[in-house]
Design a protein that fits this description.
Elements lengths: L6 E6 L2 E6 L5 E4 L2 H17 L20
Antiparallel strand pairs: 1-2, 2-3
Length: 68
């Protein structure tokens, strides 16, 4: 089966770090594309040994305005 995950990518020094919002699985890469490929692999490995149906929490992404 195919699932969609929410992934946030941040630039940290010389790396792009990708973190999955649903389960905190993380990976990195030298480029955004590499970080996405690596997080995809990491998620597949994370769930490959699961014997139960995958149940993902509902994830909501939003922005907030803050006066600073």
């Amino acid at each position: 089966m195919r699932y969609n995950f929410t992934v946030v990518i941040k630039k940290e020094e010389n790396w792009y770090v990708a973190v999955c919002a649903e389960n905190d699985v993380a990976s990195q890469g030298k480029t955004i594309e590499e970080a996405l490929d690596n997080i995809r692999d990491a998620l597949e490995l994370y769930y490959e040994s699961s014997t139960e149906p995958l149940q993902l929490p509902k994830t909501f992404v939003s922005t907030v305005e803050v006066l600073v």
